[in-house]
Specification:
Elements: H1 2-47, H2 53-85, H3 90-140, H4 144-168, E1 177-183, E2 189-195, H5 196-203, E3 212-223, E4 244-249, E5 257-263, E6 268-284, E7 291-292, E8 295-309, E9 316-333, H6 335-338, E10 339-340, E11 346-352, E12 355-369, E13 372-382, E14 384-393, E15 396-406, E16 409-419
Antiparallel strand pairs: 1-2, 3-5, 3-16, 4-6, 5-6, 6-7, 6-8, 8-9, 9-12, 10-11, 11-14, 12-13, 13-16, 14-15
Helix pairs in contact: 1-2, 1-3, 2-3
Length: 420
């Protein structure tokens, strides 16, 4: 029994030795074929830059696949022959797997070397293409003299077209233009046609363009205190002055209130204007109690206001303002009041003081066309003025009275302005 067992062991060892002898030459042949083929292919890729990358990759992949297939087939055939004769111990199978794994590792290293060669060939090809592109760019660069000649030719054609348009269209002539050659952002020479209107606008300084407005307004006023409530009274009884107990607005809606506004930025500006207002006095005749007028109280003078506006994306811009008016007072008396022949040739005089008025403004402006503004606003004017009345008879002063005229009013204003 022991002899039989020893015979089987000897048989297994002999078969294992035959398997290794048969397999190892195949593995060596595969490794040699793979290494030789990869080396040849790699050398061909490196030496010939123009070789297609996909062909190199295909050749390398084909060699690796063939070697793997050949090795796998050979090993499988030998294993099947041994398996038919006797069961292989686990130690022998492990040795066989180690050999196959070693061949696989070698195959992976060969594939890696081939991929490295392909990458190097791609890099060298890209560098060569870039160098050729630079050479072509240098060869096709246009000389500066040729650019100047072509630009001059285009300018001549433009001038001829303009002259022809003027001759054939007398009713609507082409707006005169100035032609000049300028350098564009990319360094090329281009022709710039600028109209005379644009040239004139470019003459306006930057601190004026978009900042300065000039215009005029029409004003309608309403007095806030136009009746003392003492009709028929005399001096010292609560009238404004003497028998004058009320005031009546004297409207002048002609657009005579000129103004100029300068905006420092989109939000803050200053306005200079000229304003005037007038109110008719209402009094009673001391003897007949008839209603009469002695004349008109007038205020006129310059105003200055700080304007704050809110610029937005629409064409309507709201604004507010605060300022002061420096008004000179006056009295436009009727002829019968100044020289009253019914009272023994009496002469009367009215002196209205100057006043500094407070101005509060709110409104909006609408840009209905470019540069043109329609201005609608409301302004409160606080202007209570003092006055003095004197009468003379034969050069001797017979009466002297003091009082005041409440010229406080709300002005409704409509104006038009041009913005540079």
């Amino acid at each position: 029994m022991q002899n039989v067992y020893n015979s089987k062991v000897l048989h297994v060892m002999i078969l294992s030795t035959l398997f290794l002898c048969a397999a190892l030459p195949s593995f060596a042949d595969a490794e040699e074929v793979i290494s030789s083929t990869a080396a040849v292919d790699s050398e061909a890729v490196v030496s010939g830059v123009t070789v297609q990358d996909d062909e190199i990759s295909t050749d390398a992949a084909t060699v690796v696949t063939a070697a793997e297939d050949k090795t796998a087939d050979k090993a499988e055939a030998v294993a099947e022959e041994i398996a038919l004769e006797v069961e292989i111990p686990s130690t022998v199978a492990a040795d066989s797997e180690a050999v196959v794994s070693e061949v696989t590792v070698q195959d992976d290293e060969i594939s890696t070397d081939a991929a490295t060669a392909v990458t190097a060939a791609e890099d060298k090809t890209a560098d060569k293409a870039e160098a050729v592109a630079e050479e072509i760019a240098l060869e096709v660069e246009i000389p500066a003299s040729q650019v100047e000649e072509e630009t001059a030719a285009v300018e001549d054609i433009a001038v001829e077209v303009i002259e022809l348009a003027e001759e054939t269209s007398p009713v609507s002539p082409v707006e005169p233009q100035t032609t000049k050659t300028v350098e564009s952002a990319d360094g090329s020479m281009v022709m710039d046609l600028t109209s005379e209107e644009e040239s004139e606008e470019s003459v306006i300084p930057d601190f004026i363009r978009g900042h300065l407005q000039i215009g005029t307004r029409s004003v309608y006023r309403t007095l806030t205190d136009d009746d003392s409530g003492h009709k028929g009274g005399t001096y010292g009884t609560g009238t404004y002055l003497g028998t004058i107990y009320a005031l009546d607005e004297d409207q002048n809606v002609a657009p005579m209130q000129c103004y100029l506004t300068y905006f420092f930025n989109d939000y803050v500006g200053i306005e200079f204007a000229y304003d005037q207002m007038e109110a008719e006095t209402v009094a009673t005749n001391g003897e007949t109690m008839d209603i009469k007028t002695d004349g008109n109280v007038t205020l006129a003078g310059p105003t200055i206001s700080v304007i704050g506006r809110y610029k937005n994306k629409t064409s309507v811009t709201p604004f507010i303002g605060i300022g002061a008016g420096f008004f000179s007072g006056g009295f436009d008396a009727t002829s019968t009041w100044t020289h009253d022949i019914s009272r023994n040739d009496t002469y009367r005089y009215m002196n209205v003081d100057d006043v500094t008025a407070l101005l509060l403004t709110a409104g909006a402006e609408w840009e209905f066309v470019e540069h043109w503004m329609l201005n609608l606003s409301m302004q409160y004017v606080s202007a209570d003025v003092d006055a003095e009345f004197d009468s003379y008879l034969d050069g001797v002063q017979t009466n002297a009275q003091t009082g005041h005229f409440p010229m406080d009013n709300i002005a409704f204003r409509l104006g038009i302005a041009y913005q540079f």
